[in-house]
Write a structure and sequence with these properties.
elongated; alpha+beta; 6-stranded antiparallel barrel; 12 strands; 4 helices; about 325 residues; 6-stranded antiparallel β-barrel
Length: about 325
């Protein structure tokens, strides 16, 4: 249509009619005079809308499917992770038995020494802290753990807490060269200081250079002032070698620790010290000596040996 005066008047007229119909339709409500026309239009254009909807729906469905697929994938991944964790807990019977045994021994030591402990699991070893002999445990400040608390397990002294986070803590092991703890010999008052030597036995300097010590003697922690960092009576180890006394002021011992520092799993942080020194009550029972079998030799005369009377007759 050419842009003429008549066409412009027609466009204005059509717009005016459209507004008039809209006004009549709104005021009429359900009894609108244009309702029949609307239904007719729906009849004519309905199939077209359905066709367009059918053409568009697969795209929308595909988008929804992709979104749901991602959600299902995340859910499946979560379920697979939960199942793997469950299998790890239930499927490893040997490890479960081992951990229960460790826990039982640790609780026994805590009961004998009257130590209030917070159980923990070792979740990392020293790589994160450099070259030190350390472990990380899964308890921290939120569990009441503080710096310079004693750490033990079912065997004896593990170390002391050095760094505390909200939910984890770092423990310096007794085997670390920077570790030192006061010690006391079993059944006596000979005091000394034990230092770590890595994977070698602990080195102990007794304050009494003339102390009578022998291989197989045992020692426990002496304890610190206010029980920090060490509570008394925790088993340390067994004397494996004694250096000859050279007339010095101290005497050097080498002690094999009770704890295997390369296979730690369940440990306990002492959060409450005993009311009194348990002395030697926490030490394990001494091994009974194995009796040596005795051999008795009985000599019997041979049946072929000649009798003295017969020898005389033959002569």
């Amino acid at each position: 249509m050419r842009d003429t005066r008549e066409s412009r008047l027609l466009l204005v007229l059509l717009i005016a009619v459209a507004f008039a119909l809209i006004t009549v339709d709104i005021r009429g409500g359900e009894d609108s005079p244009v309702d029949g026309a609307r239904q007719g239009a729906a009849t004519v254009f309905g199939p077209i809308e359905s066709g367009v909807s059918a053409a568009v729906d697969p795209v929308g469905n595909a988008v929804s499917a992709i979104r749901d697929s991602g959600q299902r994938h995340d859910r499946l991944a979560a379920l697979e992770k939960e199942n793997a964790a469950l299998k790890a807990r239930l499927g490893s019977d040997d490890r479960s038995r081992s951990r229960l045994k460790q826990l039982d021994k640790m609780l026994k030591i805590a009961g004998q020494g009257q130590y209030g402990i917070k159980g923990a699991e070792v979740i990392a070893i020293g790589a994160a802290q450099g070259f030190s002999w350390t472990i990380t445990v899964d308890v921290g400040a939120n569990d009441g753990i503080k710096r310079d608390m004693t750490v033990l397990n079912g065997e004896g002294l593990v170390g002391r807490v050095t760094t505390v986070g909200p939910n984890t803590a770092t423990v310096l092991l007794a085997s670390d060269p920077d570790f030192t703890v006061g010690t006391r010999m079993e059944s006596g008052d000979e005091l000394g200081f034990a230092s770590g030597q890595g994977d070698r036995p602990l080195r102990v300097e007794l304050l009494n250079g003339k102390a009578e010590v022998k291989k197989g003697d045992r020692m426990v922690t002496f304890g610190s002032q206010a029980d920090r960092p060490f509570v008394p009576g925790v088993p340390v180890g067994v004397v494996s070698r004694v250096d000859p006394s050279g007339g010095g002021l101290t005497r050097t011992l080498y002690v094999t620790p009770y704890v295997g520092f390369t296979k730690l799993d369940i440990v306990g942080v002492v959060v409450e010290a005993p009311k009194k020194d348990p002395r030697d009550t926490v030490l394990p029972p001494k091994p009974k000596p194995t009796p040596r079998p005795t051999v008795t030799v009985t000599v019997t005369p041979s049946a072929e040996a000649p009798v003295d009377g017969q020898n005389q007759q033959e002569q």
